[in-house]
Amino acid sequence: MGNSDGNYVAKAMPIAFEKVSAVMDKETYDWHCTKHYAGYVTKRNEIEKELNSVDRTKANVNYSAFRSLKLEETWNGNGQLLHEVYWDTMGGDGKYDEGMAVIKKIKEDFGSVDAWKADFIATGKSGRGWVVFSIDKLTDGKTRNFMYDVHNQGGIVGSLPIIAADIFEHAYYHKFGPDRAAYLQALVDNIDWKKVEQRYGMMKG
């Protein structure tokens, strides 16, 4: 039926705790990757295997096994991918080179890096799940900060993620309590712009 065999493998945390201690405490660092994120990968595999044999003749908008699997396919798939983007661009000191292509693009689209940061943090304060800095390839090629209220609700079709920030409470409450703004500021200050530059080049294509 064109579905995957469900053989995705959870990746190990790509950065040392010392590199992200300003953003999360040790317990969050451990369980967010090995339990929370790994759980999405496990369930994505289960769902894709079940999709290979589910009875499609009983598909129904009110309830069907097929409908449930299709809903959770994107929930768990995006849960996996967004977490991988989230960690992939962390672990830096927030400093950047003015000559970086991504910095030039941010200035072109937002006016300044500070304006982008303000918009990124405001988007993160407004959503329930994720704020994702993306390149909107199918519309006009501009970069935008999209709000994903949950993993599979938000963004624009064809937009590719460059920086993602988990804003569900499990990502920051253990260290920051209800002060989400402080968490977002710490995260922005922890960006590794060299990694962002590499990812921007990949996403821009």
Give a structural overview.
- The protein is an alpha+beta fold and 205 residues long.
- It has two domains: 25-88, Helix Hairpins (Orthogonal Bundle); 101-204, minor pseudopilin epsh fold.
- Helix content is 51%, strand content 12%.
- β2 (143-150) and β3 form a beta hairpin.
- The radius of gyration is 18 Å and the shape is globular.
User: Can you say what the CATH homologous superfamily of the largest domain is?
Assistant: Iron/manganese superoxide dismutase, C-terminal domain
SSE succession = HHHHHEEEEHHH
Shape: globular
- Tally of distinct domains: 2
- Uncertain residue ranges: none
Largest sheet features? 4 strands, antiparallel
- Given this structure, which CATH class of the largest domain is correct? Alpha Beta
How many DSSP helices?
Answer: 8
Instruction: Find the count of extended strands (DSSP E, 2+ residues).
Output: 4
Please indicate the percent range of residues in DSSP E strands (runs of 2 or more). Answer: 5-15%
Q: Which fold name corresponds to the CATH topology of the largest domain?
A: minor pseudopilin epsh fold
Helix/sheet category: alpha+beta
* Percent range of helical residues: 40-55%
Assembly state of the chains shown: single chain
Computed CA radius of gyration, to the nearest angstrom: 18 Å
In the sheet with the most strands, the strands line up as: 3-2-1-4
Q: Which CATH architecture of the largest domain is right? A: 3-Layer(bab) Sandwich
Mean pLDDT: 95
Distance between the termini: 30 Å
